[in-house]
Structure formats: C-alpha cells, structure tokens
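Checklist before submission:
- one chain only
- standard amino acids only
- sequence pasted in full

Submission:
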Amino acid sequence: MLANEIRGEAHCIAPVPLSVLDLVTVGAGRTATDALRTSVAMSRLAEARGYHRYWVAEHHSMPGVASSSPAVILAHLAAHTERIRLGSGGVMLPNHAPLVIAEQFGTLEAMAPGRIDLGLGRAPGTDGATAAALRRTDHLNEGADDFPQQLAELTRFLDDDFPDGHPYRRIHAVPGPVQATSPGGVQSPHRPPIWLLGSSGFSARLAGMLGLPFAFAHHFSAQNTVPALDLYRESFRPSAVLDAPYALIGVAALATDEEREARRQVRAAALNMVRLRTGRPGLVPAPEEAEAYEFSPMEEEFVASWTANVVHGTPDEVHSGLDDLHKRTGADELMITSNAHSGDARLRSYELIADAYGLPGAS
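Returned file contents:
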C-alpha cells in the first residue's frame, strides 16, 4: 500500500499538512530564469519549514507561467532538495503518451527515491489551439473522454504488468520494474503514487472509484469544492493504494507583513487573470501597474469575485482564513499557491505562513 507515501503529517498548530503549489510565475521585468531560481529557493524554504510536498503544474502558451515542462523542473528541484516530496500538480495526461510519462517519472523516482508524486489532470492546461498543437489533433474531446483508458495504460506501464497477449506486453518503461527481472536486477521499493486532479466531479468520482488520492483546484473553482469532495468520499472504494479517502485542495493564499501590501499584490495578480480570461495572457504585472490601470465595471466585478477566493492579508488573517477553509471542506491537506509579481513576495508569504502556524525551522 502506498498510503505512507501519500498521507502527510500536520506540524505544530496546523490543522492538516501544508504543501506548496508552484506555478513558476514570471513577473513583468523578470525572466524565466529569475522565476526558476525563485522556485529553487522556494522548494528549499518549503523543505526547511516543514511543508509536506512541493508540486509544479503544467501550463502552455502563457508568458507569465514558466511551467510547461514539469518533469524537467522537478529534476532541477530534486537536485537542490533532500527530503520534501516533489510532484506534478499536474501533468495533463491527454497531452502526452502514457509511456512517455511513465519513463519521465520513473527517471524522477530514480533521482529522488521515495519522494515523487505523479498528479494527473485531464484538461489541456491551455487554450484549444495550443492543445491541438500539443496533441497533433483537432479532436480535443477524445483525449478527455479517453482519460480512464489512458490512466489504466499509464498505471500498467508504471507497474510493468500488462497481461499476456496485450500488444504492449513486451514494452517496458525504463527506469522501472522490468530492471528487477534482468540478471542481477534489484527492484526499487518505490513507485510514484498517482493522484487525480480536478475542478469538477469527473475526476473526483473516478479517483474515488479507483481508491486513489484526489487533489481539487479550489483556487480556481471554489464553488465546486465541497460538492466534488463529497462526491469523492461517497464514491471511494478501498484499494491497494489507500484504505480511506485522502483529498487535498489547492488554495490561493498570500501573506504579507502589512495588509495593504497583500491587497496590492493580489490586485496585480487579478489584473493578470483579467488579461488571461480575455485572451491577452502576459507577464504578471507589478502592483504599480495595477494601481494605474483603469478597470472597467465588468473587470471590477471579475476582480471582486476572483479575489474573494484568495486568502490574503497579514499572517494572522491568512492563518484564520486557511483554518476556516479547512473546517468548511474537511480537506486532508492544504496546498498553497502564493502568486505575486516578485519572487521575494512569494518567498516571504510562505515564510510568514509557516511562522503563523509555528512550523519548524524559524529563523
């Protein structure tokens, strides 16, 4: 059973394990190199302060999000950390051949044994035209509709257990279990646990039926959080992976030393979302740019709705907001994404949240 590699441990006064979701955001005036250096610093801070896991998400064709290649980034982070779990939140399975994902994450597992999570989504992580370019087809619904079959194929590649007579019976994901069957081979005791990600009920139900852990994107689909978690728990069937449900939720949260600064940073991130939703994706604007921007009434309405789901303010305010969210959802883990224009603001946010909960390693 992989439960020991899935369930986290809450530290100090945190109600549940706290983790990090990194979108590798690129602010105006910064480069992707700057963003990736921030990711290394954040992963090291998260490890030192007792955050349980650190995930990166697959996005494409978005100038302000430099996480198009999660496996590459995770390999880099593995070289700069020692203990924290690393994973994808997630890899968009329909964008890739299952064998390729099995090989990539088998390689990551060999690099960082016992520390790798494989979170999978069924959305493209981008717009339709980019998804068509990634998948080499205009029939995008096929990938989503075939998700259960793709998931089953990926799982068999990871476990190297295609049945006799299957056309892939003699194909092996390497690194992987097949190496243990070669003369002198030794089997690794670890295999990356699969998580299903979602923002609606489809993956919630599928994760429950398969007895897999589930991660819900509360940070951009807050209205669906409780229904999806309820569906997951109602659908759950014990498996070789888990004997009881385990669900985390992604939470947008930003802590700053002063409340006004939190509002400034979040409003800049909201402007970035306005541009993304209106087909104008770009770099994350600086707070000064957002302050000078003239929002239309419709944009102001969107900003108000979007910021309402971002837990932000002083450390005490964020602490209280996260606790309230945990009580409302019953999530087993909170995965925090702190989006801001500057890497320093993001690093400071995770430091302040750790301090608010008394997590270990305070300076």
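Reviewer check: The chain has a mean pLDDT of 93.
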